[in-house]
């Protein structure tokens, strides 16, 4: 999956080095908004930090070890979504995502997740897709709920961000039964 067109105006694609300025500017504009729930804005202080992130994610893509994609609305980078890891042995992955505040409410994350789920099951032949969200991040929690994911539990004291310890509603899961996977392989 290098580029996937979701509709006439939006697509997801692997980030390129030329995207570093847009990525940095999007994070910088939304530093407080994104940083309320995620750590990376506090570690993304220059365009070089964004370039290094893109370089690492492209290496991970080449190694089939999880990677991040840009979410594009026309020519504008709206956010990012990716597989935090790809565990072929256990047939599972976890999806992470974030959007600039100005792009929320347009269905971009929902469409992007649907495409990553389909890709994980159909192309990567995985059995389980997980999404972990901060318990108090109601907007983010609403997405796996809307998509029919099942809640598997909560991790206490999961992450320390801005002097706060967050619980994480972990995991929201969508899976295909192994019977269906075996049937697809055998028949």
Largest sheet: 9 strands, mixed
**What is the gyration radius calculated from CA atoms?**
16 Å
Structural class: alpha+beta
Elements, N to C (H/E)? EEHHHHEEEHEHEEEH
Between the first and last Cα atoms, what is the distance in angstroms?
26 Å
Structural shape: globular
Low-confidence stretches: 162-167, 181-187
Mean pLDDT score, rounded?
84
Describe this structure in words.
The protein is α+β, with helices and mostly antiparallel strands and 187 residues long. Helices cover 36% and strands 34% of the residues. The chain has seven helices and nine strands. Strands 1, 2, 3, 4, 5, 6, 7, 8 and 9 form a nine-stranded mixed β-sheet that branches. Helix 1 crosses helix 4. The chain is globular. The C terminus is likely disordered.
Question: Secondary-structure map with pairings?
Answer:
Layout (H helix, E strand, L loop, with lengths): L2 E3 L4 E5 L5 H10 L1 H5 L4 H4 L3 H16 L4 E7 L2 E12 L4 E8 L8 H15 L5 E7 L3 H9 L3 E2 L2 E8 L2 E12 L2 H9 L1
Parallel strand pairs: 5-6
Antiparallel strand pairs: 1-2, 2-3, 3-4, 4-5, 6-9, 7-9, 8-9
Helix pairs in contact: 1-4
Key terms:
alpha+beta; 187 residues; nine-stranded mixed sheet; 7 helices; single chain; 9 strands; globular
Give a short synopsis of this structure.
The protein has 187 residues and is an alpha+beta fold.
């Amino acid at each position: 999956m290098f580029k996937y067109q979701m509709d006439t105006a939006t697509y997801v694609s692997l980030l390129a080095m030329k995207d570093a300025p847009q990525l940095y500017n999007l994070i910088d504009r939304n530093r407080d908004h994104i940083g309320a729930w995620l750590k990376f804005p506090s570690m993304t202080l220059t365009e070089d930090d964004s370039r290094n992130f893109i370089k690492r994610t492209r290496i991970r893509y080449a190694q089939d070890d999880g990677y991040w994609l840009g979410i594009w609305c026309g020519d504008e980078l709206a956010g990012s979504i990716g597989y935090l890891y790809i565990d072929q042995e256990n047939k599972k992955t976890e999806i992470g995502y974030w959007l600039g505040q100005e792009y929320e409410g347009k269905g971009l994350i929902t469409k992007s997740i649907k495409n990553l789920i389909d890709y994980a099951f159909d192309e990567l032949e995985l059995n389980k897709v997980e999404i972990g969200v901060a318990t108090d991040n109601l907007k983010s929690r609403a997405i796996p709920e809307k998509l029919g994911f099942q809640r598997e539990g909560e991790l206490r004291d999961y992450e320390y961000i801005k002097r706060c310890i967050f619980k994480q509603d972990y995991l929201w899961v969508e899976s295909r039964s192994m019977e269906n996977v075996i049937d697809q392989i055998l028949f």
